[in-house]
Write a structure and sequence with these properties.
- Helix 6 (138-150) links the parallel strand 3 (127-130) and strand 4 (153-155).
- By secondary structure, this protein is of the alpha/beta class.
- It has helices at 4-7, 11-32, 34-42, 64-69, 103-119, 138-150, 162-172, 181-193, 215-225, 339-347, 377-383, 390-395, 397-414, and strands spanning 85-88, 98-101, 127-130, 153-155, 176-179, 205-209, 228-235, 240-246, 254-256, 261-266, 280-286, 297-303, 305-306, 318-319, 324-325, 330-332, 335-337, 352-363, 366-375, 419-423, 439-441.
- The strands form five sheets. It has a nine-stranded mixed β-sheet with strand order 4-3-5-6-7-8-9-14-13. A four-stranded antiparallel β-sheet has the order 10-11-12-15. The chain has a four-stranded mixed β-sheet with strand order 20-19-18-21.
- Bound molecules: adenosine-5'-diphosphate (ADP), potassium ion and zinc ion.
- Adenosine-5'-diphosphate binds next to strand 7 and strand 12.
């Protein structure tokens, strides 16, 4: 552990620390951020009345739109000159969200990422191949700072240029890699194509995050790179990656570093706090941020919390995998569908791989969903095909049957009919470095 005394704090002491910090941060934003003074006044909250965790639900939520409305610096609690660094989220729609850090915030950022790397199996002296994108995105510099704080040798490769990554991994022999899970899939596949076996690779641990992933991808990456991979979670508004990380011992949920980030899971419709174990929207209150503290920030990410003790010795609460972002949810003929649900179904079918794309179109007034999924290399060889086309699939009963099987399983477990298109190995989109968009929704245009 990087900070064992904090990571194993008793629940009582952790709670006392959180309550002290919570009342301080509420007073701090009320004093310094006009937006929060207004928001709290309008909600009739007296900052002095926020003393315990039971007071938390009295506070209003902060939503992404609040950040956009106050673009770029309106939510900052310190003068611009005190910012040591700026980051921004990718902002696929409209203006990006700008976030800022004081020197002290950067120190905390490095510490929580160092805790995350240590939880993932990394130790001082190991080499970190950091393939998260460097730049405004928090991934690259975030992992970089944490790796240095832990005492690792950091290789700032950034995303993309796969050929060079392959060479560096073989020549420099890093023990740890950090990147998106979809890019780890890409790298594993490229090594396989070159006939480099996982045993020949120096890699032992992979720290994967920034997008949802499932056990199917975990298996593929663990086997393909010869590693034990863990999940790292975070978002720029809260700090960046390193809000939470799985421990490599259990890999059953990610420990949230809750002396800094106070989590809640709430009902997506009513906003009411949900009991432990129930799936809802993850909400965070930052307890120590100086530059841009946020109260009850609505992440839009869906998961659950568990306070069950963990064998690794860490006392911090664990969150389950992210089942999806409310933004990623597809509504197909009235049914809510998350890409991770589709991925979970595919993982139960040995003849296909978790390389897929979901395309949604509107035909007249009806939504039509198409699931493009790759058949496995083994199955492809077994049927002795060079390529797949509609004619080939119609003519070959084994392919025809597989297509029906996938369609049935999707319909059975998700409740939506999808047209299934089988692709040959290598035909579905791959990550070229960053997050992979597995959904193509053509209805919006
Ligand atoms: P954006 O993607 O909007 O540019 P960020 O780069 O800060 O913003 O990404 C944060 C979001 O990425 C999270 O809210 C979550 O939806 C997703 N994310 C990050 N880590 C994970 C993870 N380990 N599993 C699933 N989703 C993740
Ligand atoms: K290995
Ligand atoms: Zn643990």
């Amino acid at each position: 552990m990087y900070q064992p005394e904090l990571e194993t704090l008793s629940r009582e002491k952790l709670r006392a620390l959180q309550e002290e910090r919570l009342s301080n941060i509420v007073a701090y934003v009320y004093e310094r951020v006009p937006f929060y003074r207004r928001l709290l006044d309008e909600a009739g909250v007296d900052p002095k009345g926020v003393r315990t965790l039971e007071d938390l639900p009295k506070l209003p939520f902060t939503k992404k739109d609040h950040l956009r409305e106050n673009y770029p610096f309106g939510l900052f609690a310190v003068p611009r000159e005190r910012l040591a660094r700026i980051h921004a989220s990718s902002g696929t729609t409209g203006k990006p969200t700008v976030v800022g850090y004081t020197k002290n915030d950067l120190q905390v950022f490095a510490e929580v990422v160092a805790r995350s790397l240590a939880a993932a199996g990394a130790r001082p002296g190991m080499m970190l191949h950091n393939a998260y994108g460097y730049g405004l995105f928090t991934g690259g510099l975030g992992l970089h700072g944490g790796g240095e704080a832990l005492g690792m040798t950091v290789v700032p490769v950034s995303g993309g240029m796969t050929e060079r990554q392959i060479m560096l991994i073989q020549d420099l022999r890093p023990e740890v890699i950090s990147c998106t899970p979809s890019y780890a899939q890409t790298l594993a596949e490229e090594f396989r194509k070159r006939g480099v076996s996982p045993e020949a690779l120096s890699l032992e641990y992979a720290v994967l995050g920034a997008e949802p992933w499932t056990e199917a991808i975990r298996k593929q990456v663990d086997e393909g790179l010869g590693v034990r991979s863990t999940n790292i979670y975070g978002l720029s508004e809260i700090i960046g990656p390193g809000v939470a990380n799985e421990c490599v011992e259990e890999r059953q949920g990610s420990h949230i570093w809750e002396d800094h980030f106070l989590p809640e899971v709430v009902d997506p419709d009513s906003g009411e706090p949900l009991p432990e174990g129930q799936v809802g929207v993850l909400v965070f209150t930052t307890l120590t941020k100086e530059a841009m503290p946020l109260l009850r920030y609505w992440t839009g990410d869906l998961t659950f919390l568990t306070y069950e003790a963990c064998s690794c010795g860490r006392t911090h609460v664990r969150m389950g995998p992210i089942l999806g972002r409310t933004d990623d949810m597809l509504i197909i003929r009235g049914v809510n569908v998350y890409p991770t649900q589709v991925e979970a179904v595919l993982s139960g079918i040995p003849e296909v791989e978790p390389y897929y794309q979901i395309v949604v179109r509107r035909e007249g007034t009806l939504d039509e969903a198409e699931l493009k999924v790759e058949v496995s290399e083994a199955f492809f060889q077994e049927i002795g095909r060079k390529a797949l086309s509609d004619e080939v699939i119609e003519a070959d009963h084994r392919l025809h049957a597989l297509r029906e099987k996938v369609a049935h399983k999707i319909k059975d477990s998700i409740g939506v009919s999808m047209k299934v298109t089988l692709l040959a190995p290598g035909e579905a989109p791959r990550s070229e470095g960053g997050k992979l968009r597995r959904v193509l929704d053509l209805r919006k245009k």
